[in-house]
Each structure stands twice: as C-alpha cells, then as structure tokens.
Amino acid sequence: MTDTARFPAEWEPQSAILIAWPHAGTDWADRLGEVEDTYIALVEAITRFQPVVICVADDDVECYAQARLASNRIDMARVRFVGAAYDDTWLRDSGPITLRDASHFRLLDFRFTGWGGKFEAGRDDALVGHLHAAGLFNDSEVRAIDFALEGGAIETDGAGTLLTTWQCLHERHPGLSRQALTEKLSTWLAQDRVLWLDHGYLEGDDTDAHIDTLARFAAPDAIVFQACDDAADSHYVELQAMADELAALRTRDGAPYRLFPLPWAKPVIDDGRRLAASYANFLIVNGAVLMPAYGDEADASAAAVLAQAFPGREIVQVPCRPLIWQNGSLHCITMQLPKGLV
C-alpha cells in the first residue's frame, strides 16, 4: 500500500454488501422468525442492485438461509455465502473498514469490544481476519489496530472529512483528549478534517451515540440527520441542539452544509422499553438508498426526504421494526464493500 490510500464514501461504487445471517445461537433467538423476515427483505432489496455476501455460522445455517431466500424468489446468482463464526450480526461494527488506493485495499481491523464491554465479542473481533484468510477479499491486506472503534461511529464524505460523536469516542477512550483522538482518527482513516458532534442521542441505543443513528453525509456538502419536532418528547432538547451544531458546521470551502432533517417516528415501546427507531440508519447501495421502515406514518415522509438528499437514486423501504428490539437498525447490520474488493 502507498500513502495515497483513501477512505471511500458509502455512495461510491460497491462490489457487495456484507451481512451475517441470524440464527438460534445469536441474541435474535427469541424473535428469530420476525428477524429472518427482515433479512429476507433486505437481501431481496440489495440483490436488485448488486451482490450480497452472507456470513453463515455453519453448513446447517447456510442450507437453511439458502432455502429461505430461494423460496422467496431471491436472485441467488447475486448471493454468496462464506463460513464464519460470529457472536451476533452487527457487521457495521465488526466488519472491515476499507481504505483503497489505485489498485489495492487496506482492511482496517480495529478492536471490537462489544460496545465498550457490554456484550461478548471475541468471535466478532476476529471476523475480519477470518474473512481475509478465507479468501473473500481481492488485492488486500489486513491492518490490525489495537484501538476500539466501530464502523457505526464514523462517517466520511470520501474527500477527507470525518463526522463522529464525542460521546461514543470518549466513552471508549476516556483517557484521550479530543485532539489526541482527532490525530489518531485522521492518521488511520486518511482524513484531514474531523467534525465532532457533542449532542444527539436515542433512547434504546447501547452504542453510546453512534453517528450512523444520528447524522449521515449524503454528499461532500450535504448531511441528512434525525430531527425531532415534538417538544414533549424526551429527545427534543438533545436533537434540537444537534441540529444547531450541524447548522454551524462548514464544508471544506467554508459554506454551510445543505441539511436534510428526517421526520420523527412515534415512540416504539417494547415491554416498557423505548426502542431506537432512527431513519438516519439507512444504507446506500449502487443506484439506491435502502431505508429502514417502522410501520409508522412518518415512513413515507422519511422516504421523501431521502429522495431529495439522494437525487437519481431509488428509495427502497425495508421493514426494520424487528431489528430495533436489539437496539440497532438497517445500517447497523450491514457493511458495504467497495468496488473490486470481492
């Protein structure tokens, strides 16, 4: 690899989306049927536009997943299975963060600690090395970095600007200053600007305010973010403060960002616990944006906002209400693999 390595934006051309199939040995066991339906809908949506690589825990899981997908008329020519051990299916945080130069890829393998030790994560932490050893990736090297960082905690515009939240990075590394964290992220991720948000949270989120639940780049000069217009809601003050922070940010050229506020879904309560239903947790694929839908009347409004933010891309709603039971959504269970990597 050379020093010209670059961190591509999610909207750049992709070779595939990486996911892991839920099974009875994961935390999805109690609601496996509902979650499988979401995964089937997700794979159907992805394969309309590009291939999908599905991690499976063993041969039985692969056979079962293949049968479920084929029976739902999925284009199986665009589905590839790869055997791998995993604790759970949140591949945004355990999968590879990929940098590239003209002809090679650098797979950054940061420590995955189960969001600061909240959950067992030993097999997830080894996933990148396992997939690389299995021959999944082309023209690539793995760079192991002994530093806790999840893919959902960072957003890049593909042109050297990173967006993240102070709450998450400070929670993982309380002994490091903002300047020290900025320098480390800039070096490892080939960025020359790091923009920090000090506000924004979602009840039911155990990631300590991952940026991909709050604010996302739609272009180098545009940010889509989760807004809250209900003054009686517990999120109102924090998300309003976050909106003010975003309005104060400037692009590399010194201009304000074009901002696209997403609507606020009605509270989703499960056994007295509020779940984190964020529309900001969308996934960009080749030619489309896959949007988490929650069976809420705001789903259609969120799709309209994303259509404005991503002109020329089809907006596809994927039913994700079962996912938020485990405190994540669509973007959290996926990782894009840049064009040429597989």
Automatic annotation (TrEMBL):
Domain of life: Bacteria
Alphabetical list of InterPro entries matching this protein: Peptidyl-Arg-deiminase_porph
One Pfam assignment: PAD_porph
Organism: Luteimonas aestuarii
Protein name (Swiss-Prot/TrEMBL): Agmatine deiminase family protein
Coiled-coil region: none
UniProt keyword Hydrolase present: yes
Alphabetic keyword roster: Hydrolase
Cross-referenced Gene3D superfamilies: L-arginine/glycine Amidinotransferase, Chain A (3.75.10.10)
GO function term, MF aspect, one: protein-arginine deiminase activity
GO biological process: putrescine biosynthetic process
